Amino acid sequence: LVKNKGSVRRAHGGIETMTTSTIAYEIKDINLAEQGKKNIEWAQKDMPVLANITERFRKEKPFEGLRLTACVHVTKETAALCIAMKEGGADAVLAASNPLSTQDDVAAALVKYWGIPVFAIAGEDKETYAKHVQTVLDHKPHLIIDDGCDLVATVHKTRRDLIPNIIGSTEETTTGIIRLEAMEKDGSLEFPALGVNSSLTKHLYDNRYGTGQSALDGIIRATNILISGKTFVVAGYGWCGRGAAMRARGMGANVIVTEVDPLKALEAVMDGFRVMPIREAAPLGDIFLTVTGDKNVIDVEHILSMKDGAFVSNAGHFDVEVNINGLRKHVREYKNIRPALDEWVLNNGKSVYVLAEGRLVNLVGAEGHPASVMDMSFANQALGIEFVLKNKGKLQNKLYTLPREVDVQIAKIKLQSMGVEIDTLTDEQFEYLNSWKSGT
Q: What are the pLDDT digits (tens) for 206-221?
C-alpha cells in the first residue's frame, strides 16, 4: 500500500487499483500509458469523421453536466470515441465489453492523459468483468454507450434504481440489437435505445470490411497458417459473414457458407460460395469462423466430426457460438501453443485448435477493426448519443435508428477525407426523381 499525493494505490494479482479525490480506476499497469497514448494518436490520424465531430463537441459542450457510462472494447479506436464524449463535456467512465479484448496500454493512457476512469484488464475473469460492469453503473449514468447490451441488460435486471435518471442508450453490435429487440418486443425496455449497428455507415462498412479483414487478421496472427488452398467455413452470411467469406476467398481459400436464413443462403450461392448445413461442412473444413450472434452454432457433434487439426474460431460478440463448454467433456488434454491458440486433444484421438478461447478472434488474436472503418461506426455512436439527448422526452421506450440524413452526412465527410468527389443532381434530375407526373 503506497500513499501518494492524496491517492491510494493497491497492486495485487497483476492489477493496479487506484483512487484519488477525482478519479478511481482498475487497470493492468499505469506505466503502459505512454505507449497507449501513441497508439490512440495513431488511430486518431485515420479517423477524420470522428475528429470533425469531436471538434464541434469541444466547442458546443452538448453533454456538459451529464454522466456517461460506456461498456465497449477498450481499444485505441474506442478510446477516440470516449475522448470525443469527454471533449463534449461528459463525465465519462469506461468498462470493457469483453474480458479478453482490452488493450492494457490504451486503458492506462485514458486514465493518465485524458482523466477517464477505466475498469478493464486484458484476461480478467468473468467475476471481475461482472464486477466492473457494476462498478461503472455506480456512476449513475444519464447516458449509456453499450456494446453487446450488457449495461442495459444489467440495469433492467439488477440496477433498476438507475432507470429514472437514464435518458437513453446507444448499442454498437448486432448481438446487442437482437437483445434490445427482444426487450422491446416483450415490453421490458424502460428507456429509449438507439441501434447504431442499423445505420448503413456502420454495418455496411464496419461489419463487412472491418470484421472481414480483422477476423482473418486474428486467425493469421494466432496461427500463422496459410489461408490459400484451405477450406474455410463461415457460419452466418450477415454483413460480418459476407465480409469474412469475401476476404477468405480473396486470400485463396475454398469457402463454404452455412446459414439458416433462405434469403441469405440464396445470396451466398449467387455470390459463388458453396452452401450446406454445418453438419455437412464440419468434416470438410480446415478453418471455421462463426459470425451469427447465436449460441452453439458449431456444436459438440460438429467438432467431433472435424478433421484432425481443424481450427475453430469465433468473431461474434459473445463466446457462445462455439459450444466450448460442452466440448470439454470430450477433451483428454489441453495444450497452450501460443497466445490465443490452444490445442484440444479429444477422446477420439483427434486434435482441434481453438482460437481465442472461443471469444472474438479479431480482438483477442489481433487489434480489432482498422481505425478508418471504426471512424464511421464511432461517428454514428457520437451522433447517436447526441440524438438521444436532443430528443429527451420525445422518444418512446423503443429501439431507434439514426435518421438517414445523418448517415448521408457521415458518408460525405468520409468521402471528403479520402479526396473523393461525386456528382450532384441537377434541378431537372431532382424533379424527375421526385415527381410522378413526368412520363417515360
A: 889 999 999 999 999 9
Using one digit for the tens of pLDDT, what is the confidence trace for 139-154?
Answer: 999 999 999 999 999 9
What letter does residue 298 receive in the DSSP assignment?
B
* Percentage of residues of the chain with pLDDT beyond 70: 94
Taking Cα atoms as reference points, which of 316, 376, 310, 365 lies closest to residue 341? 365
Q: In what order do the strands lie in the sheet with 254-258?
A: 274-275, 254-258, 231-235, 287-290, 310-314, 351-355, 341-346, 331-338
User: What is the secondary structure of 341-383 as a DSSP string?
Assistant: EEEEEETTS-EEEEEGGGSBHHHHSS--S-HHHHHHHHHHHHH
* Bridge partners, residue 378, by sequence: none
| Unique residue bearing C-alpha cell 480473396 | 250
Coil/strand/helix, residue 62: coil
Question: Which residues does residue 70 pair with via DSSP β-bridges, in sequence order?
Answer: 94, 145
Q: What pLDDT does residue 172 have?
A: 86
Bridge partners, residue 336, by sequence: 342
User: What average pLDDT is seen over the chain?
Assistant: 92
CA dist 361 and 289 (Å) reads 9
